[in-house]
Write a structure and sequence with these properties.
The complex is a heterodimer of chains A (556) and B (336). With 556 residues, chain A is of the alpha+beta class. Chain A contains 17 helices and 23 strands. Chain A has a six-stranded mixed sheet. Chain A has a four-stranded mixed sheet with strand order 1-12-11-10, with no helix packed on it. In chain A, α13 links the parallel β17 and β18. Chain A is globular, with a radius of gyration of 26 Å. The N and C termini of chain A lie far apart (61 Å). Chain B is mainly alpha-helical. Chain B folds into two domains: 57 residues, no CATH class; 230 residues, MetI-like fold. Chain B contains 15 helices and no strands. In chain B, α5 runs antiparallel to α11, α8 crosses α9 and α13 runs antiparallel to α14. The longest helix of chain B is centred in the middle third of the chain and has 40 residues. The chains are: A alpha+beta (556), B mainly alpha (336). Chains A and B meet through α1, β12, α7, α14 and β19 of A and α2, α3, α5, α7 and α8 of B.
Chain lengths: 556, 336
């Protein structure tokens, strides 16, 4: 009997030890080109040979067609090129296109691709040329309803896109590969933020031949054209990319990028402290630890991000319907600084505006809604509910994140001081979205991470009356004057004039207060001192840092 | 005429496997029903802040979610019978290979954790029972109570902070070396050293964390079961014949005390295999538990259903193995 048991245990142990065990790699003669690394464990004094980049979730897909989340974007961004891209400051610059011209009426965009000796300068990693035909193929792929691309609406203003999507025409009238180096896009109507949309991942070029060969499996083993090539993907564990020696802009200084999928924020933090990550985010629960440690504190980089956290009032339902004073009263009643300092340890920034800082337009001297209980009480009386009398108990809907619940409790307490009773309802993300998109919630959490740094992505997207519900306007607020300003700004080509229009629109929104303004999240990141050239930008989110140029980053 | 009869063990196994088919039907039916009835739309979750009703309708149709749930369930059964578990909504990859890959990782961790639990748990239980009320007994059982009571994630984080982040002896998380294996092979010199650096050391902390609770349960159960047996007449007889105490304990008492212990080992094994969410999260272990929790919160029907089928199979198989093991240990069970 004991023999059986011993044999069983030995078998179990042996299995455990050897199943899935890696074979020693074959000696290729010169595998140590990047320098041997003996121990990644101890906080390394030696320069690591690869950049270890934490991700809070696994990538969904690495096919640009299906990349809509920040995590997949971070990885895919390293491998693909669009016509244009954003600089870390959020300005549009050439990517595969060297230059472009926009016709005076704002309808025709003509892109000239980068060339070398008359040939396209960029090549896909499988050798296919990145020419205008590749862009035509990629854009049609996005519009093809068979692919159900979530971001097909980025091209909705392209002439003939609707006919193509409906199967009426085999080609898109507004997309034209004039010659291998010239790509022309014609729009139905002027849409000034269009260049921003072209920077997004879904509109990057994919190699036609490789996509046709791989079919639906392209996202598992992508072939791009960017500074890094796909190497391997262990789902839920890591993604490895290798530098592209033939990149038109030169091989990036870091040979290997290892994206490590670490879902727990505390684990990421411990990994960073152990020296096995080059950067990481700061978990809210560790803020005091970081602040108390001068070594860690010196490693913080960060700016307020274009990442909103606040609440929205449902302006179609009583008591918020047609009651600006009530909505303003709520804004004055909440002590934003208390939330910023006591819940977030100063790692967020009080929101005073509807459009975040960092674009060509920003309302720098907005007064915000300074915490003022007396003023709030006065407004509440003006709203017809003196001391909160006559107001029913209001349900505040938030999702399940622990910090969001803390914030909701702080708001609840502040509102109780002016006599408003609030009940907090926490819901799973799915049912939460159902509720707020359908307009069934009266008062709810409202978040937005900028897609592209243009006020259009904020004011039009989130507050125009044509965008009720899932498209962005969950406060279901509508104001025809506001609508006309933000719609004019979409077709206006002059930046100064656009800024003026957005200024007028934002003041209307601010005064009518469809939102309860709370804070902007900061992109605070811990970066190892030997990492050079990493700039954490405003329209980035940590730990992803997809928009900050990894290509130029080096390890000293 | 003599009727053909299968060997009893084989007949038993076959009967049990056939019985598992209705179990799988029931499990998938209930799960699919619950998923469909739960509020929340998978398409909405996938699209997040870029919700566009027109595109959402396209995706809903592509995934077949526009049909009534019984039709969806029927299609699911048909596909599954052909060995196709579908594509995950959130991961955009075939469910079958994905889930098997994650299950392999969970299996490896479970084997390590259960080995630790069985070896140390049983040893502690035997020592405690052989010398009851001795200081060793008191100390071991105190440890066992602590082991059952400690929250797993807390223990994991504690081990992580101390042995990994502070002392740097072991990796903080992950399940294998993330760097270039070629240069690691060059610098390590021998295969065992390479194996340890690339692989082995990653198992220590999660294995220990995950093994603690079953270890404590096994220790306590072995002790009480052994004590019962050690009071029996045949043990006294064996002693009277002049056998040494360790020999009596190990060869006469232990086999008879094992049945309840094996049951518990089996149950714990199955529980760990179907996902150790907390340990996997703390140590970034790419296993099944974490993936399943995420799939449920994302309404990723194909992935959830794939996981449910796999887990149901695991439970059925482990129960079968436990029942067969009873027979090996105790001939009376086999006869019955």
């Amino acid at each position: 009997m004991i023999k059986h048991l011993t044999a069983f245990l030995t078998l179990v142990l042996a299995l455990a030890a050897f199943a899935g065990c890696p074979a020693p790699p074959k000696d290729t003669g010169d595998s140590g080109a990047t320098g041997a690394q003996t121990d990644t464990n101890t906080a390394s004094s030696a320069r690591p040979s690869e950049y270890r980049w934490p991700l809070p979730a696994d990538a969904r897909s690495l096919d640009p067609l299906t990349v809509t989340d920040t995590v997949s974007d971070t990885v895919a961004r390293r491998m693909f090129n669009g016509l244009v891209r954003f600089t870390p400051e959020g300005k549009v610059t050439g990517d595969a296109a060297e230059k472009w011209e926009i016709s005076p009426d704002g309808l025709v965009y003509t892109f000239t691709l980068r060339s070398r000796d008359g040939q396209p300068a960029l090549k896909f990693h499988n050798g296919e040329p990145l020419d205008s035909a590749a862009f035509l193929f990629s854009f049609k792929r996005v519009l093809d309803p068979a692919n159900a691309c979530e971001r097909a609406n980025l091209l909705e203003y392209v002439k003939g896109s609707a006919d193509f999507a409906a199967g009426k025409t085999p080609e898109v009238a507004g997309l034209e590969a004039v010659d291998p180096l010239t790509f022309r896009i014609t729009l139905d109507k002027p849409y000034t933020p269009f260049l921003n949309a072209l920077c997004l991942m879904s509109l990057c070029a994919v190699p036609p031949q490789a996509v046709q060969e791989a079919g639906a499996g392209f996202g598992d083993k992508p072939v791009g054209s960017g500074p890094y090539k796909f190497d391997s993907w262990e789902r839920e564990q890591r993604i490895v990319l290798k530098a592209n020696p033939d990149y038109f802009d030169g091989q990036p200084p870091i040979e290997t990028l290892v994206f490590r999928i670490i879902k727990d924020e505390n684990t990421r933090f411990e990994e960073f402290k152990a020296g096995s990550l080059e950067h990481c985010d700061i978990p809210p629960s560790k803020i005091s630890e970081v602040n108390a440690d001068p070594k860690l504190k010196a490693m913080i980089q960060g700016v307020p991000a274009m990442d909103k956290y606040g609440y929205a009032f449902n302006c179609e339902e009583a008591p918020f319907k047609d009651n600006t004073a009530l909505r303003q009263a709520f804004n004055y009643a909440v002590d934003k600084q208390n939330i910023v300092n006591n819940i977030w340890g100063g790692l967020v920034t009080e929101a005073r505006t509807y459009v975040p800082e960092g674009m060509f337009y920003y309302w720098a001297d907005s007064p915000g809604y300074a915490y003022d209980v007396e003023k709030a009480k006065g407004l509440l009386e003006q709203a017809g509910y003196p001391g909160g009398q006559g107001l029913p108990e209001l349900v505040l809907n938030v999702d399940l994140a622990p910090t969001n619940k803390l914030v909701a409790e702080a708001v609840q307490e502040d509102l109780s001081k002016i006599g408003v009773k609030v009940r907090i309802e926490t819901t799973d993300w799915g049912p939460f979205l159902d509720k707020i998109y359908a307009g069934e919630s009266l008062f709810h959490q409202s978040t937005w991470l900028t897609d592209y740094p243009d006020p259009d992505n904020w004011l039009w997207q989130l507050l125009d009356s044509s965008n009720f519900g899932g498209k962005g306007n969950t406060s279901r607020w509508s104001n025809s004057e506001f609508d006309s300003f933000v719609r004019q700004a979409q077709v206006e080509l002059d930046e100064a004039r656009r800024a003026e229009l957005y200024g007028k629109a934002e003041r209307i929104a601010f005064d009518e207060a469809p939102w309860l303004l709370l804070y902007w999240k900061n992109s605070s990141t811990l970066v190892q001192p030997y990492v050079e050239g990493l700039t954490v930008t405003r329209f980035d989110r940590t730990p992803q840092l997809g928009g900050s140029w990894a290509e130029k980053v080096s390890l000293k | 005429m003599r009727r053909f009869r299968l060997p009893p063990l084989l007949a038993f196994v076959l009967r049990r496997l056939l019985l598992s088919i209705p179990v799988l039907f029931g499990v998938t039916f209930i799960c699919y029903g619950i998923l469909s009835a739960a509020p929340g739309d998978p398409v909405r979750i996938i699209m997040g802040q870029h919700y566009d009703p027109e595109i959402a309708a396209q995706i809903t149709k592509q995934w077949g979610l526009d049909k009534p749930w019984l039709v969806q369930y029927g299609r699911f059964l048909l596909r599954t019978a052909q060995g196709d578990l579908g594509h995950s909504y959130a991961k955009r990859t075939p469910v079958g290979p994905f889930i098997l890959g994650k299950f392999k990782n969970t299996l490896l961790l479970t084997l390590v954790a259960m080995s630790i639990a069985i070896v140390f748990g049983m040893a502690a239980g035997i020592v405690s029972a052989a010398w009851p009320r001795s200081p060793a007994d008191a100390a071991l059982m105190l440890l066992a109570v602590a082991g059952i009571s400690i929250p797993v994630f807390w223990l994991g984080m504690l081990l992580q902070v101390y042995f990994a982040a502070k002392l740097g002896w072991l990796p903080v998380s992950d399940m294998s070396y993330s760097g270039d294996l070629g240069s690691l092979w060059k610098s390590s010199g021998s295969y065992p050293a390479f194996w340890w650096q690339a692989y082995g050391r990653y198992f220590v902390l999660p294995g220990l964390t995950l093994g603690t609770v079953p270890m404590a349960i096994i220790a306590r159960l072995t002790r009480s079961s052994m004590l019962e047996v050690l009071n029996q007449d045949y043990v006294r007889t064996a002693r009277a014949k002049g056998l040494s105490w360790p020999r009596v304990v190990l060869t006469h008492a232990l086999p008879n005390a094992l049945i309840p212990v094996i049951t518990v080992i089996g149950n714990n094994f199955a529980a760990l295999l179907t996902g150790a969410v907390l340990t996997e999260t703390v140590f970034s272990w790419p296993g099944l538990g974490r993936v399943m929790v995420e799939a449920i919160s994302q309404y990723d029907y194909p992935l959830v259903m794939g996981g449910v089928i796999l887990m149901a199979c695991v439970f059925v198989l482990i129960n079968l193995i436990v029942d067969i093991t009873y027979g090996l240990i105790d001939p009376r069970v086999r006869a019955a």
